Amino acid sequence: MRLSIFRFNPEKDEKPYMQDYEIAPEQTDRMLLDVLVRLKGRDDSLTFRRSCREGICGSDGMNINGRNGLACITPVKGLKEPVVLRPLPSFPVIRDLVVDMTRFFKQYHSIKPYLINNDPPPERERLQSPEDRAKLDGLYECILCACCTSQCPSSWWNPDKFVGPAGLLQAYRFIIDSRDQATQERLDDLNDAYRLFRCRTIMNCTEVCPRHLSPSRAIEKIRLMMVKDSS
Amino acid sequence: MRRTATGLRAWLVQRVTAVYMLLFIVFLLFHFLLAPPDSYEAWHGWMRNSRIAIPASVFFAALLLHAWVGLRDVLMDYVHPLAWRISALALLAFSLTAIAAWVVRILLMGTA
Ligand code: SF4
Ligand code: SF4
Ligand code: FES
Question: Using the beta-carbon criterion (under 8 Å), do B3 and A190 form an inter-chain contact?
Fold first, then answer.
């Protein structure tokens, strides 16, 4: 199997370069991450993040043959060779495939990703009807891998001002939560020229999400709530 | 106030003007297919008929608003240095105003 991997070590390299690897496939290579882990056994300078190796921690987001995805759930079979691996587009590179997620998480925190409810907490838990709970499906499953935001053109142009698809999906997750009392504040916070309305409905986010979530649909729903709210 | 003007409101302006323009263009197409005017004067007379002049003025207003919001968005995406952005927006506003004046001149005064 042939791979071409983005390499950059800021302590040694003046600029990034692509390094070619050739590795004989083995029976145990089911997912791309399996191959990467074996490659690292051979060349321990190769750097990438991974943890759960089952698509749940969100740490091995990378650009695989031009498309963002998680190496751990990308089957080796069917990948066009050489497999070109790059760090998440538009994110600052720390080393090789490892990127700096600071800005991404700053946007995420800006939407206040926690329940705001000023009622005194009940003895056990805040209850929710099964219907209200169902509204969170397709939202709470996000693992913050940043595959979507890193592939969103609007985030490329205004990463500091546009919240980006991952953050907006979570914004909607709290806007629609029946237990949250800050719906109005949340809508107002997003209603400026940048935070939500930079989205051009290009839908790269939905296209690329490894968890098959749809940030663009969540954004559309927030817009519709704003329209209702303003009339 | 300012925040709504540039967020939701701009987005709504974009949608509403698009729908209106689409309807008007379909209407124009049908009109020119079914009853094509045979001279500039005939066309101009038709345009000045108040039954057409009002929806046509609304159409051009919608067109200019739509262009303003759309191009403003493009500039916000790509032109980041403040001085450049302000100059580009000013140039855009000036051009659109000039086009508006030209439209008024043609429709009301009949001179190109
Ligand atoms: S929405 Fe999907 S692609 Fe985006 S961060 Fe969440 S899991 Fe990753
Ligand atoms: S739909 Fe919006 S958020 Fe998603 S990729 Fe496109 S511009 Fe970005
Ligand atoms: S290693 Fe956890 S998502 Fe891939």
Answer: no
The helix-helix angle for A215-230 and B8-34 (nearest 10°) equals 90
Is the C-beta atom of A157 inside 6 A of ligand 2? Answer: no
Q: Whole-angstrom Cα distance, residue A157 to residue A90?
A: 9
- Concatenated DSSP letters of A102-119: HHHHHHHHHT--S----S
Cβ of A223 within 8 Å of Cβ of B77? The answer is no
With beta carbons less than 8 A apart as the criterion, state whether A157 and B77 touch: yes
Angle, alpha carbons A154-A156-A157 (nearest 5°): 70
- The C-alpha of A117 sits at a distance from chain B's nearest C-alpha, in angstroms, of 26
pLDDT at B52 over 70: yes
- State residue B1's pLDDT score: 39
Percent of chain A with pLDDT over 70: 100
**Contact, A89 vs A151, CB < 8 A?**
yes
Both tokens assigned to B78: 């790509």
Mean pLDDT (whole number) for B54-83: 94
Q: Domain extents for chain B?
A: 2-111
The class that CATH gives domain B2-111 is mainly alpha
Classify domain A102-230 at the CATH topology level: Fumarate Reductase Iron-sulfur Protein; Chain B, domain 2 (1.10.1060)
User: What are the distances in angstroms from CA A45 to CA A4, A5, A101, B70, B85?
Assistant: 15, 12, 21, 47, 44
Q: Is the ipTM of this complex over 0.85?
A: no
